[in-house]
Amino acid sequence: MEYTNANPSPVKEYILSVLARNRSGVLLRIAGLFSRRCYNILSIVAAQTENTEYSRILIVVSGDDRIIRQVDKQLQKLVDIVQVDVLPWEKAVVREHVLLKVKRTVQNSEKLVEMANVFRAKILNVEPDSMILELTGDAATINSFIELYNPYGVLKILRTGAMAMEK
Fold it and tell me: Could you tell me the pTM of the whole model?
């Protein structure tokens, strides 16, 4: 995704992979850094790594190269930040995860299952009046999945931000 604004540098989405010590307040300090500088976080995902002493925080931000370099430098100055990497989209596996609760009736039940099969989504729960589905994929796939179910009555959506790992 790329477009230009009044600046000559293109505005793009970037994935920042931040390795931090697993201590309370780290995520708050990171969010505060973005807030103070009026940078918008498009998505943020944080989880413990294979080493319980560290967490990996994946942040998707929009900006030009200058802004990303500045954010990178500011993040590295924070206490408990061990490493910051800007992951190139083309050199990373990027996935999102969604749980979708949709209205279910006797009339639409078969169609809901059929659509789930097309996307290879998992059916996690079936109730008389609803169904919960799970899907992992890229943002475009997740968006298409949600859009396809909208006419049937989406009751609730829980969606992660982008998770990424360098190839």
Answer: 0.82
